[in-house]
C-alpha cells in the first residue's frame, strides 16, 4: 500500500486538507474567544477554557506553518538532491521533529481538557476522573517516546520502523480510549441529570448538549482510530490523517464552546423548575414562608441575549410550622445543573 500511494502525493494531499480544516478552526476559534470574553453570564472569564483555546490555536498554527515549509523544502530546495520522496521520508529533521512535538502537545492538551470537563461534570470527583487522568499521563509518556524515537533513528529509516511503531500505536490507542471514556462519562452524567429532572423541568431538555458532546468526542476518537488503522496497514495515507489531527483536535474543542455559547444547545423555550417548597420569591430573598408550591423560571435564549444563564440555582429555604426540609434530591439536581453549566459556560 505504501508503494501505491507515495509519500510525496500523501503530503501534498495532507497540506491541502490541513489548510481547509485550519480555516474552519480559525473561524471557530475566533467565535469561541468572543463567546468566552463577551458573551458570558457573569463578570468572570472561564480562564481554563480561554487558555486552552489559545494553546490549541498556537499549536495548530505552528503545525501548519512547519508542515508547509517542510513540503516547500522537499519540492523546491531538495527537488534534485536528495529528491522530494527522500526528503519527506527523513523523520530526523528539525522541522519534522517540531511538527511532531507540536502535535503531541496538542493531543495532550485536548485529552487533559476533556478529562478536566469530566472532573467538573462529576462534582470534582477525583475517582471518576482517575482513569482518564492516568491515560493522559500515558499519552505524555508515549508522546515523549515518539519524539525521542524520531530523533534517534537514521534519516533513511521509515516511520513504520518497529521501534517507532510501539510508541506511535500506544499513543494513538491511549488518545482513542481517553476520548471514548470521557465522552461516555460526561454523556451518562448529563443523561442521568436530565432524566431525574424531567419531572420538574418543563420545556427544556439537555439532550441537545448530549448530542454536542457525543459528536465532538466521536470526531476526535474517529480521527485517532483512522490514523491507527492506516498506520498499522503500512499505508502512506496515514500522513493525511495524522497531519490533520492538529486542526481536528482544535475543531472538536471549540465546537462545543461555540454551539453552546450561541444557544444551539437550547430548546428555545422557558423552563419551570418546581421547588415543591416555599414560594420562589420567599426562597430567593431568604425569608421564611408558609408551605406552598413555588417555581423558579429558567430563561432561554429567546428571552435573554445571554443563552448561557445558569441552568439552575441552589435554593435553600426554611418552612414555618413544618418538620421537613427541602428534598435533598432536588438540591442534588440543582448542584448537577450548576456543575454541567460550569463545564460548558464561558463564565
From TrEMBL:
Origin superkingdom: Eukaryota
Region span, Disordered: 277-299, 317-347
Basic and acidic residues bias locations: 327-339
Transmembrane spans: 12-37, 49-69, 126-147, 167-188, 209-233, 245-265
Keyword tags: Membrane, Transmembrane, Transmembrane helix
The keyword rRNA processing is annotated on this UniProt entry: no
Segments of skewed composition (Polar residues): 289-299
Name of the featured protein: Uncharacterized protein
Amino acid at each position: 500500500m505504501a508503494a501505491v500511494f507515495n509519500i510525496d502525493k500523501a503530503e501534498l494531499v495532507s497540506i491541502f486538507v490541513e489548510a481547509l480544516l485550519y480555516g474552519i478552526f480559525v473561524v471557530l476559534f475566533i467565535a469561541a474567544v468572543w463567546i468566552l470574553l463577551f458573551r458570558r453570564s457573569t463578570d468572570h472569564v472561564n480562564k481554563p477554557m480561554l487558555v486552552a483555546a489559545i494553546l490549541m490555536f498556537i499549536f495548530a498554527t505552528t503545525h501548519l506553518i512547519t508542515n508547509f515549509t517542510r513540503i516547500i523544502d522537499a519540492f523546491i530546495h531538495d527537488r534534485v538532491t536528495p529528491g522530494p520522496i527522500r526528503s519527506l521520508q527523513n523523520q530526523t529533521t528539525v522541522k519534522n521533529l517540531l511538527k511532531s512535538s507540536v502535535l503531541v502537545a496538542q493531543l495532550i492538551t485536548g485529552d487533559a481538557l476533556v478529562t478536566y470537563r469530566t472532573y467538573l461534570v462529576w462534582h470534582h470527583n477525583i475517582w471518576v476522573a482517575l482513569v482518564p487522568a492516568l491515560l493522559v499521563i500515558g499519552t505524555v509518556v508515549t508522546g515523549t517516546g515518539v519524539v525521542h524515537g524520531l530523533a534517534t533513528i537514521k534519516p533513511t529509516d521509515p516511520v513504520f520502523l518497529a521501534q517507532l511503531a510501539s510508541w506511535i500505536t500506544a499513543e494513538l490507542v491511549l488518545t482513542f480510549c481517553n476520548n471514548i471514556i470521557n465522552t461516555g462519562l460526561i454523556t451518562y452524567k448529563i443523561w442521568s441529570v436530565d432524566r431525574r429532572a424531567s419531572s420538574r423541568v418543563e420545556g427544556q431538555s439537555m439532550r441537545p448538549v448530549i448530542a454536542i458532546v457525543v459528536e465532538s468526542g466521536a470526531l476526535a476518537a474517529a480521527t485517532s482510530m483512522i490514523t491507527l488503522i492506516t498506520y498499522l496497514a503500512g499505508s502512506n495515507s496515514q500522513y493525511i490523517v495524522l497531519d490533520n489531527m492538529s486542526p481536528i483536535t482544535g475543531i472538536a474543542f471549540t465546537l462545543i464552546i461555540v454551539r453552546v455559547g450561541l444557544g444551539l444547545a437550547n430548546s428555545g423555550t422557558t423552563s419551570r423548575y418546581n421547588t415543591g417548597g416555599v414560594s420562589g420569591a420567599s426562597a430567593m430573598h431568604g425569608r421564611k414562608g408558609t408551605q406552598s408550591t413555588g417555581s423558579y423560571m429558567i430563561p432561554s435564549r429567546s428571552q435573554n441575549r445571554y443563552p448561557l444563564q445558569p441552568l439552575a440555582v441552589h435554593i435553600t429555604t426554611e418552612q414555618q410550622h413544618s418538620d421537613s426540609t427541602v428534598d435533598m434530591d432536588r438540591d442534588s439536581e440543582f448542584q448537577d445543573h450548576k456543575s454541567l453549566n460550569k463545564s460548558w459556560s464561558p463564565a
